[in-house]
Specification:
Layout (H helix, E strand, L loop, with lengths): L2 H9 L11 H5 L4 H39 L7 H4 L9 H8 L3 H23 L1 H13 L13
Helix pairs in contact: 1-6, 3-5, 3-6, 3-7, 6-7
Length: 151
């Protein structure tokens, strides 16, 4: 069991799973570049939502910690850590995700995002976390449009 998995087991009840994951986007055929773009859009939205409350450096610290914990499951994320030292620096995440398959990129992003959410829950509480990030979760995912062919 990785550190990130152990952390999630201790800190997060099952009913509070976040809803903004990119697995469905990748499963619908999105390539790694599209997943990476969607991931960066999520992080930019998180940055905008949380900056007034915990500041850019607070977000950067949580982002770095989430990267560190998620890299236990996805070792290639460790390369992103150096680029994460500057607040709002998501270019290295985009580059690393783009080098993977769409499904691997989505799995890594989802793991990192869940870890970030768990860390934030522990810092400011579950209700405030949900309230602050609701605007992020309400945004439609980026990626190719899926046509509904049902009658």
């Amino acid at each position: 069991m990785s550190h990130a998995e152990a952390f999630r087991m201790v800190t997060q009840p099952e009913e509070s799973k976040i809803v903004k994951n990119l697995g469905p986007l990748a499963a619908s055929g999105a390539d790694a570049g599209q997943v990476a773009d969607a991931a960066v859009a999520v992080w930019v939205a998180i940055d905008a939502a949380l900056s007034p409350v915990i500041g850019a450096r607070g977000i950067a610290a949580l982002y770095q910690r989430a990267l560190h914990l998620a890299s236990a499951e996805h070792p290639w994320l460790a390369a992103v850590y150096e680029g994460a030292l500057q607040p709002g620096g998501f270019a290295s995440l985009r580059a690393a995700l783009s080098c993977q398959t769409g499904l691997r990129a989505a799995a890594a992003h989802d793991s990192m995002l869940q870890t970030f959410h768990d860390l934030l829950d522990n810092l400011i509480g579950q209700l405030l976390t949900q309230r602050l990030l609701q605007v992020v979760w309400d945004q439609p995912p980026s990626g190719p449009a899926v046509q509904d062919n049902s009658p």
